[in-house]
Structure formats: C-alpha cells, structure tokens
Amino acid sequence: MKLMDWLVDLAIYVANSGLFIIYVVVDTAPWWLSLSAATFIALTFDRWAQLLAVYAPSRYAKTSTPVRPPRTAQITTGIAVGLWLIATWSLGPPVTLIGAVMWWVAALALAVMPQQRWSLLWTTKAGMVLYSIAILGYRLYLWQASRLSPAQLADVFGGQASAAQIIAQNTGTFATVGAWLLWAVMPAGYISVLVQNWAAQPMSLVNPLAGMRDVLAQIRTRGNHDSASSEASRE
User: Fold this and answer.
1) Alpha carbon distance 191, 120 (integer Å)
2) Structure pTM?
3) What is the SS3 assignment for the chain?
4) Which residues are 59's β-sheet partners?
5) Which end of the chain has a smaller Cβ tally under 10 Å, C or N?
6) Alpha carbons 177 and 159: distance in angstroms, whole number
7) Nearest CA to 130 among 83, 63, 176?
8) Dihedral of the CA atoms 95, 97, 99, 103 (nearest 10)?
9) ∠ CA 92-93-97, rounded to 5°
10) Which pLDDT value is given to residue 225?
C-alpha cells in the first residue's frame, strides 16, 4: 500500500507540474511571440538595412572597400521591444496578445514589401513605440486616479460626496475610452497603415522580391552584368 500511495502521489506531482508548466507557457505566450517576432526582424531585416547603409555595388568588376555596418537598426528594435515588454507587463492582457499580433504583422509587412523595407522598418518600430507609450500613459493615469481620495478634492468640487462622484465618473470614462483606443482603434490604425502602404505601391513585375539593394545594383551596373564582366576581362 505504501508503494501504491507513493506512486499515486508521484503521478499527482507530475500532473500538477505539467499543468503548471502549461499555464506558465500559455500565460507568457504573447511575450514570447513578441520577442520571437522582434528577434526575427533584428536578425533579418535590420541586418539587411545595416548592410545596405554601407553597401556600395561594384562597377565593371571594381570592388569597393568593405565598411563595418552599424548596429543602429537592431538597437532600435531592442529599444522598441524592451519598451513594449515594460508596457504590457504593467497592464497585462489583452494588450499582450494584441501586441504580439502587431509585431508579427510588422514582420509580414517587411517580408512582402521589399521595396519599402527601409521606410517600413522605421514606421513599424515607431508605431510599436507609440503604442507602448500610450499603454504606459493609460496605466499611469489609472494608478494616479486610484490614489486620489475625495477628501483631497473636497474643496475643489464642493464636498467629499461630489468629489467622489466626479472622480468615479472621470475614471470610468477614461478607462472605457482608453480601452477602446488600446484594444481596437490604435491596433486597427497600425495595421491599416501597413495595408495602405502595400496597396499604394505597385509590385515590381520583373522581380517582385527585389529589394532596394538589388535595385541599386541594377542601376549601378546598368543591368548588364555580362558586359561588366567582359569589360573587366579586357582590362
């Protein structure tokens, strides 16, 4: 019986541990999704932008001197996701899940609009920073409002009863409007800007996946790599 009791207790401990891990993973999944999207952007599109900043295409087989690329784009991504994590930690769901969707929409936009990556890198990060600042401002106001007491504003509003009623009304109105802004208006505006950019810019019919670096190389070599090679061989 002791062995059976020990096995039952062990099974219960294992099940509880597994459930705890599942709860933690599910609870923190939006943060991990946001971090994975930001990491993907930093290692791909940010790296591309940094290489493009110092890129000088060769002309007629004459190579340029390599320059060490800066880390500015990756640093700005780190700042944006760091501010985002602080903001969502202070407020919690559902903005955590909304933000994760916004991060991955940004990564998708950068993937499908190669001609606009340079500007979109700034637009997407600026949008996430502004959204994070709005969350922090919203949370700060609610925290400050919760610390106000009717006695502190009794002289201003003509008594504690009036002050308590006004504080409750203003806080409720601000909380409702702020929730609509953070849960619907700002995320929809962020996504609509990206969709508008996608719809406004025509896709390249020759090379839809060509980025700015490819376009610069095409212009620099006049699109004739064979003549460039023959020119180099004659030299």
Assistant:
1) 12
2) 0.71
3) CHHHHHHHHHHHHHHHHHHHHHHHHHHHHHHHHHHHHHHHHHHHHHHHHHHHHCCCCCECCECCCCCCCCCHHHHHHHHHHHHHHHHHHHHCCCHHHHHHHHHHHHHHHHHHCHHHHHHHHHHHHHHHHHHHHHHHHHHHHHHHHHHCCHHHHHHHHCCHHHHHHHHHHHHHHHHHHHHHHHHHHHHHHHHHHHHHHHHHCCCCCCCCCCCHHHHHHHHHCCCCHHHHHHHHHHC
4) 62
5) N
6) 27
7) 83
8) 180
9) 115
10) 44
Say which residue the tokens 């996608």 belong to. Answer: 198
Rounded Cα–Cα distance for residues 102 and 134 (Å): 15
Q: What mean pLDDT value characterizes the chain?
A: 75
Angle between helices 72-91 and 117-147 (to 10 degrees): 30
Token pair for residue 5? 């009791």
Task: Please list the residues that pair with 62 across neighbouring strands.
Answer: 59
**How far is it, in rounded angstroms, from Cα 100 to Cα 172?**
27
Q: Who contacts 120 (Cβ-Cβ below 8 Å, separation ≥6)?
A: 106, 109, 110, 113, 194, 197
104-137 residue pLDDT tens:
999 988 888 877 777 888 889 999 999 999 999 9
Which tens digits make up the pLDDT trace of 151-196?
A: 666 555 666 666 677 777 777 888 888 889 989 899 999 998 888 8
